[in-house]
Amino acid sequence: MQIDISYESLPIFEALSSKVRIDIIKLLSKDKLSVKEIADKLHLSSAIVTMHIKKLEEANIIRTERVAQRKISSLRVDEIDIHFPKKIFNAFDTKETCIPVGHYTNYSIKPTCGLATLQEFIGKVDEPRYFMDTRRMDARILWFTEGFVEYQTPNYLNEDEKAEMIEISMEISSEFPFHNNNWPSDITFYLNDVELGTWTSPGDFADIRGKLTPEWYPDNLNQYGILKTIRISNHLTNMDGEPLSNITIEDIPTQSEVWTLRIEVKEDAKNAGGCTLFGKGFGNYDQDIKIKTYYS
């Protein structure tokens, strides 16, 4: 589950602020249980346990289903990732561009794969030829198991302006037929043909629906990703504050008129678990691929 520091996330924080509810989560991590079974294990009344169960259900942390004559509770999530607000860098001026996920200029991918607009799938899923469909420009989500997609963006820096840091952010996850919350994938990033490093995505998520994912999109397909931010500075390249590589801004050719961003799952990757990219209108973050340049 992906959450951020916002009022919308308060039910989740509130649900976790109870020793009893933490104990219930621990029990459900081992087995599906009824209210009575939970109450017996915690030495509490069924009425009290029901109250706590409802709080966890409202936060989408657990689900309760009727099995025969009993209501059985189970965990919906096995991980909660909290996204904090970005630190703002005020030392430099900035220029920013956004690239819709369907605006790739080159690709080479293998199924499972597919694209979708806000209204429908583009052609048939798992057929790479539809990545050349003219409707791809309207795609707001795309996925593939192996290969790459490549994007280009104008270099808006003037001759007398020097890039001091480049920030690239996107919502991204692995790709698994239907979904799998535990499906690692090694995804490699390049800027202007320089390999920035590889990040291992933990999974392809559909434990709950994406906040923005359109209603027509099936529940059992990838619903949301993780918002990841790559920063290339004078010292190194990091992702969300963690070192990604020793590549610095000096290693990146920034004078060309057009910059190229490649996102790839290599054929020989240790975890070849695919890639899903979420754009505006899909997932949990209402954004396309963002490239922000800090300059002096």
TrEMBL record:
Pfam families: HTH_5 (PF01022). Residues 1-95 form the HTH arsR-type domain. GO terms for molecular function: DNA binding; DNA-binding transcription factor activity. Keywords: DNA-binding, Transcription, Transcription regulation. Signal peptide: none annotated. The keyword Metal-binding does not apply. PROSITE patterns: HTH_ARSR_2 (PS50987). The keyword Transcription regulation applies. SUPFAM superfamilies: Winged helix' DNA-binding domain (SSF46785). InterPro entries: ArsR-like_HTH, HTH_ArsR_DNA-bd_dom, HTH_MetalResp_TranReg, UCP030050_HTH, WH-like_DNA-bd_sf, WH_DNA-bd_sf. PANTHER family: TRANSCRIPTIONAL REGULATOR, ARSR FAMILY, TRANSCRIPTIONAL REPRESSOR SDPR. This is Transcriptional regulator. It comes from Enterococcus florum.
